[in-house]
Structure prediction request, 286 residues.
Amino acid sequence: MILAHAGEPLQPHDVWTAWQLDPVVVLGLAVLLWLHRRGRRPDDHRRDRAFVAAVIVVAAALVSPLEALSGSLASAHMVQHVLLIAVAAPLFAWSAPGPALLRGMPAAVRRAPGRLRRRLGIRPSSWHLPTSAAGVWLLHVVVLWTWHSAALYELAVEQPLLHVTEHVLFLGTAVLLWRVAIGRRTAVASYGASVLLVFATGMQAVLLSLLLTFANEAWYDVYADTTAAWGLTPLADQQLAGAIMWIPSGAIHVGIALALVAAWLRTADDAPARPPGRAPLIGGGP
Prediction:
């Protein structure tokens, strides 16, 4: 991490020096881009660009000064959450990078899971990610609300390892959710179920944002002494965080829901030809 005053709350004059150059994060994102470039096929540039955009968004959330600023402002922390959950996660899900990443790996690495699976006597059909709309929605909601409870939220701000865990869980459960709603090939939800899933996801986020925005007192004591330098009280900072979750995140949910409805209407005429429960593919694709 590059910080003018390491170990102290970030001050406005230090913000552009506070890049979080964690080698694990930076190297991990670079390896993902390299594997994807190595294994991609030249037949779907939109999904390739979506994957690259998702990696850039994750970098903006975790490598830019936003990461350091999240230790001083709840609103900055909320921007991170919105970037990971509502921007990067649907981009990852829609881009469906799994096959490209697998092809990009060295042959020995690609074969290792198969050898381990055979050694353990596990059939390939038993290895699959959750595809139940209700299940992935509940998992994501539990993770989101649990980590916004005062005790766990403050621990995440104060403990770097817990902060990483929080972000991994947010991004991971959100990718599972968006994969069911808008994923490619692997999703199973019908258009109607996908619209309902996106709507339900947006509504629970709105409820949490309203609680944050209209609270009478600040929830998180960890920001009691850090917001004044930014011209905010802890309560005003929290209200701003709620508004960030409410408006930009809500607009993204509405946009994706409308795109699903539009795709649903376009395919209404040939609906009998579609396999029952087949995944909606926003923007087309095989």
Residues 234-266 form the longest helix (33 residues). Confidence is low (pLDDT under 50) at residues 1-6. DSSP finds eleven helices and no strands in the chain. The CA atoms of residues 156 and 181 lie 29 Å apart.
